[in-house]
Amino acid sequence: MSIHFKINHIDVEAELGELLIHVAARNGIEIPSLCHNDKVKSYGACGVCVVENAKGGKLMRSCSTEIGPQFEGMEIYTETPRVIQARKIAIELLMTDHTGDCRPPCMLECPAHTDCQGYVGLIANGYTEEAIQLIMDKIPLPASIGRVCPHPCEKACRRAALEKPVSIANLKRFAADVNLDRGRDAYRPKVLPETGKKAAVIGGGPAGLTAAAVLRGKGHTVDVFDMMPEMGGMLRYGIPEYRLPKAIVAEEVSLLASMGISMHNNIKIGTGEYTLEHLREKYDAVIIAIGAWTSSKMRIPGEDLVGVMGGIDFLREIALGKVPDLGKRVAIVGGGNTAMDACRSAVRAGAEEVYTIYRRTRAEMPADQVEIDEAEEEGVVFKFLCNPVEILGKDGRVAQIKAQKMKLGEPDAGGRRAPVPIEGEFEMIDVDTVIMAIGQGCNIAGFESLEHTKKNTLVADENHFSTSIPGIFACGDVTNRGAGIAIAAIAEAQKAAAAAHAYLTEGTLPAQIKNEDNTFYSKRDITKEEIREEYAFRNKEERIPLHHRPAQERKHDFNEYMTGYTWEEAEQEANRCLECGCLDFYECRLLAYANRYEIHPERIGGYKHHRRSLKVKSEYFTRDPDKCILCGLCVRACEEVTGHGVLGLVDRGFDTTVQPAMGLPLNEADCMSCGLCVSVCPTGALTENMNGMKAVPLPENLFAYQCNLCNVGCDLLISHFGNAILKAVPISAKEGDLLCERGRFLLPERFTLGDTMADVKKLLGKILKGGAISAGKIGVLISASCGEEQVKKIVSFASAMMPGFIASNSMGKPVPEKYLASAEFAAKKNGKASAASELTIGVNDEILKKYGVKPLTGQEKASIESGAIETLFIFGDDVCDIDISKVKNIGTFKIEI
């Protein structure tokens, strides 16, 4: 019997007993749910799937409401104000007892919200090309920023509670340098098809180039105008060569130019034909990112004497190759990183005595501690609790500084103790040059038509970064608060470019541009003691420092004084990451709905019941009870689909947890490791361990593949990011949603999208550095899962080395008993029934035989285990039954898909 009714004004037809949520889905209407899955019976546990009858009454839970005769002629609505409010409250209630970090603290602390955890994890796994894609999604100048950023991300890194923070900035630099080394093959952001819209960017510094890269990536025509001879802004003209080589900036600018960005130098807007009004007429949108190029003054007597200059003016002259005559004694006033750059540059420019004068103590200096330490190593003398009150001259040139002695008083508004003059106490300092590095200001000549502050910064809305004139945006040091760090300017540029893109495509600005600053994330407030307790299982691993040139050597030139990580060092350092952010970030339905319905769980409050002691990491996946919302899907799927019932709900109320029966470890329970519980979990309470890889949350792409780890050949989906294979998942939830243990969890460990032979040659090069490889003492093992093209390539390569054998340890072998139960179950469930005795590993035996590959003999196995084979190349083959501990050189390679 068919029932006819309406959902959101759409006429629908349903059969008696059908679930309302299924009827809606069949008609293209999505109803959100956190506890529903087609494979199990629904109970409406989460309360998110509610819908409303036009005639009123109670809201209906669509995932557990069956169609009955009463639905005839009914009108159902899925997004009424009442429904939305109910969903919002339901999600807020779930969030009150959900504990976790949607995103890692390092990313949230980064002004540009760079995916630190993502690219650090990719580097740890050897995927630098994929890492640079993640980095350049936010930072188009990563090699430059990796060298100069004061890395606020590292200040938030929880690894610091164990030893020292992960060296995130240096890892960024590593990935970026590797990318630049690829030359013409270097990765650069992709460009979408042309839109026909044109945008002008004024300023070629980090903010301007970021805005240009974002807009060009969206397909807009972009012209960048800059007053200096070369692009790069303060990265080129405000950072000394020894910290950031100009060649690095030039390479990165060239990469951006190759995207199709037009760059115009030696053009100052406001002079000649290049006026703001002219650009407004010629372009559809304008972004102003002119930076802060004016040195602040102290407003004390003697500042106009010859030999007194601003910090950024001095650094700019150095960058232009115009090293000023500093005399023998130089004083730098200030305590920030610009002051450190100036004093260290003065040493390299030939000054015999260099002083840094600062009105507070060392502890209050805003400069990075490492900059202070390195300046002292190079001979800079620090004079603390001193404040210049007058500069004295002789014959019109600087001769002395009169400095007021200070003491620390009460803390100021920023929390630092305010310096207070000690009445009548002064110090006279003989100097030939004074460099004022106390701050920067903006020159907005040519932009006076825009609303601006008393500090000569342009007023820009903090969400859109739009100015007082429609279609004109501003970002970076020239806006609102003034000069800051480069990564903060890049963050503003990202937002300004997103708003400009909306303006170019829609003609208007939305009420709010969505970004990480206005996105809801679950966050943990966790103390150092709790961090140490939670990660007590992690081994102590000290931070790997970069290699520095000795102070006595480096202080005599402007050559770069730090060398980046080697591959081995980078992977080792990246592996120190604790993976704080949720591994299920890109798939978590709870987070997606939390933001869709703009929840505010703090208004409900409540007590979070921490269950960290119950967190379990098994061979293939991790259970985190703190993230569990007790939807029951894992329990029901394990019982109703597999019939095993390994998981159950223990205790009642807020004390309820999901655990195996009797609290047993999973490896002692009746779990067959099919991963179904992980597949159905709507949060990060159950996540896959990335076998053979460091776990990394990444935006995934999927493609269909037929598993060839045994002769059943189940269809599945490969999840990947670039060449990094993340996991294998069932191809269809409605057709069983099951894979066996090997297909679900071992396949990603054995296969790759990368160039296997390139990896082989890289390892071979390392081995050969230690001496020649003896013919006959080489062994090659090839998996019976290899395709013909792979076998052909491997055999061709291996034969040239005259190996002792080329064999396969998996040809014709049955599926190991450990995996047999789940393989047989999955085969039957997916309609590819096979008797256990018919399940074999060797699926391509005939191909191997065609190219002369035979099963590994007992004698060959013995030669491996005795160490007679000195070098063993393993191409995806299973060697768990072979002792390879005595083999001198081992190369394990994945099979290309």
- Name the CATH homologous superfamily of the largest domain: FAD/NAD(P)-binding domain
Shape: globular
- In round numbers, the mean pLDDT is 91
Number of strands: 37
* Helical segment count: 28
Physical arrangement of strands within the biggest beta sheet: 2-1-5-3-4
| Structural class by sheet pairing and helices | alpha/beta
**In CATH terms, what is the fold-level topology of the largest domain?**
FAD/NAD(P)-binding domain
Give me the Rg, rounded: 32 Å
* Level-2 CATH architecture of the largest domain: 3-Layer(bba) Sandwich
Largest sheet: 5 strands, mixed
Residue share in helix: 25-40%
- The unreliable regions are none
Question: Hey, roughly how much beta strand do the residues contain?
Answer: 15-25%
Query: What distance lies between the first and last C-alpha atoms, to the nearest angstrom?
Result: 49 Å
CATH class group of the largest domain: Alpha Beta
How many distinct folded domains? 6
Features:
Ubiquitin-like (UB roll); Fumarate Reductase Iron-sulfur Protein, Chain B, domain 2; FAD/NAD(P)-binding domain; 28 helices; globular
Structure report:
- The chain has 897 residues and is of the alpha/beta class.
- The protein folds into 6 domains: 2-79, Ubiquitin-like (UB roll) (Roll), CATH 3.10.20; 105-186 and 524-574, Alpha-helical ferredoxin (Fumarate Reductase Iron-sulfur Protein, Chain B, domain 2); 198-293 and 442-509, 3-Layer(bba) Sandwich (FAD/NAD(P)-binding domain), CATH 3.50.50.60; 296-438, FAD/NAD(P)-binding domain, CATH 3.50.50.60; 608-751, Alpha-Beta Plaits (2-Layer Sandwich); 753-896, no CATH class.
- It is built from 28 helices and 37 strands.
- The strands form 11 sheets. It has a 5-stranded mixed sheet, covered by helices on one side. Strands 8-7-6-9-20 form a 5-stranded parallel sheet, sandwiched between helices. The chain has a 5-stranded parallel sheet with strand order 11-18-12-13-14.
- Strand 16 and strand 17 (417-430) form a beta hairpin.
- The two termini are 49 Å apart.
- The relative contact order is 0.09.
- The mean pLDDT is 91.
